[in-house]
Amino acid sequence: MKLGADVYIDSRLKDPAEELQRLCGAKAILATAPDSKAMSELPAGLGPNGNLLLIGVTTSPIETPPVQLIRGSKSMQGWGGVTPTNSDDVLIFAELRAVRAMIETYPLEQAAEACARMMSGNADFRVVLTMP
Question: Which domain holds residue 65?
Answer without folding.
Answer: 1-85
